[in-house]
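> Could you send the Probable replication restart protein PriA prediction when you get a chance?

Sure thing. Input:
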Amino acid sequence: MTTKSARSERVPAERLPVARVCVDVPLPHLDRPFDYLVAAADDASAQPGVRVKVRFAGQLVGGYLLERAETSPHGGKLAYLDKVVSPEQILDPEVARLARAVADRYAGNLCDVLRLAVPPRHARVESQAARPDDQPARPDGQPARPDDQAPRPDDQTAEPALAEGSAQPGAPPAPLEPPAPVDTAGWARYSAGAAFLRALEEGRNARAVWGALPGEEWATRIAEAAAATVRGGRGVVIVVADARDLDRVDRALGAVLGPGRHVALNAALGPAERYRRFLAASRHRVPVVAGTRAAMWAPTAKLGLVVIWDDGDDLHAEPRSPYPHAREVLLTRASLAGCAALVAGFTRTGEAQLLLETGWAREITADRDTLRAAAPAIAPTGDDPQLARDPGAATARLPSLAWQTARQALQAGAPVLVQVPRRGYLPSVACAECRTPARCPHCSGPLSLAGARDVPVCRWCGRAAAAYGCPVCSGRRLRASVTGARRTAEELGRAFPDTTVRTSGRDEILDTVPAEPALIVATPGAEPVAANGYGAVLLLDTWALLTRSDLRAAEETMRRWLNAAALARPAGAGGRVVVVADGSLVTVQALIRWDPGWFAARELAERRELGFPPASRMASITGKPAAVAELLAAARLPEGAEVLGPVPADNDEERMLLRTRRSQAADLARALHEAAAVRTAKKAALPVRVEVDPATLF
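Output:
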């Protein structure tokens, strides 16, 4: 690389400072910092964490300045930084260390992780100036002292945070008083709950797995934990699965913390507003950051607590390389920062159970008496007493018990929630004569019906099959194989003709419903909250969840059931839950007793016996057969690593699974990254997708 003498200002190169830069070149064999000289004109602005432009392999590429050094081990000539894009130190040092650890854990590249961690720059928002007296606040709410943080070149252009109830752009935030003392009454219902809050306020790194009671105001409890941490002078990062949960947490934080102490990050805000709020966190204007998956990277001053709600939700899994999971990122962050962690939800995953069994975290649960007082009455339809009263309960989609429970709740003036696993009208149909699944004559995709008077349409290619004929028996009539939410709402409308029926799903998601008689048909994850709780919750088509070919089918079923059942009123107030399933099933038994801990321990024991995650560490390699074989040949796998497969994948690709002990996780990730580096160094043409701890194995 050549130097730029015009920018050196006649200072000898050996006396110029060196900048170590992560260049935005996603090639594994280039996954390391590169050294550049800093010209005297850029010396003040070229600080760790800023965006820069550099010449790399003859091209101008972006990157982040990771650190400054006096000398470089590089023996040749060094090029100069081409440009400091902005003096804004957007990459926090703590987040940079986290990004490197996550890249190593998932066999990825640092630049790919930083692309997830730092949002795209919005120059107008970044350059908007605030009043000169706009001073950053410490996590405890007091104005920052000069020695609290090093001066930043961008401090004079900082702007106030835009959280609920916070100041508007251009106006300085008022000095914040410390948050009011936290009311521990809500947490006192749980063993070790009040002690957890005390530990947060004292700045200790308490780590817990919290099983929320049914009907719990979980967002308020999380806000109280955040307030206790802020009173201790530290920051908080909260991650939830979707925008509806974020809205609840946002409102709870505003009520508990007061205005101006938090920001909520959501992709739906738009690039300008999202970047504005990110800057409020990056400039340490607010101590608490809440958001969906991307908020796991949010910078805060003196991080004291990380929280994840409902860690089993698949929305927490990042779909972009290197495919990290929010739970694992936050737990890694807690370990690196030495801060507290809270894994919370109505249910419990195998990973959370492993944290308890290894002693990394403590359990926060309520005693059985408190649980019985809060839980609804839960009954299955497939046990012997029910079959004796209703022999058709084993095959009926809406057995008499479910119908009577819904009618009684409606007569009592309460809404009824009906959870249906599938959206649409009839997402799957079959021949009415021989029961052969109806397939598209063009691409063999499954046919579906969007309405009672519509023609069958292929779910893969979108072609209509108006003249469909069964290839087995030539029958032309179709019957439902799977009933969706819209068809369920239509059937319930006929069964309860004087009752309002509403749907909540992908097309329209309801947030809340009033405390009045109504039937709410919702798909999992789209259940609205009812004022005063639902009088009854019906869990239909349970076989569709339990029979999925997925390692986590039972765990995901339990999560969806508990999340819906938690919306019902307590049994003492008339709340009932009816699950249309055999009462002898393990999942149903755990639901009836409301014992997610027992179920998670049982699931983890079975996976440990079979060698499945989280008891072991697995990686997935997907690509063309020749490319997969090339990567495996170059990989120096840990001793004892198992190679499973290949199995067919999409687009004529194949998939191989690698399995090792948990103690060999770092060695496996390193071996895969080095093998990928060998392929990119050789300019291999065929891509290979490497996933460590993939979300799905089958």
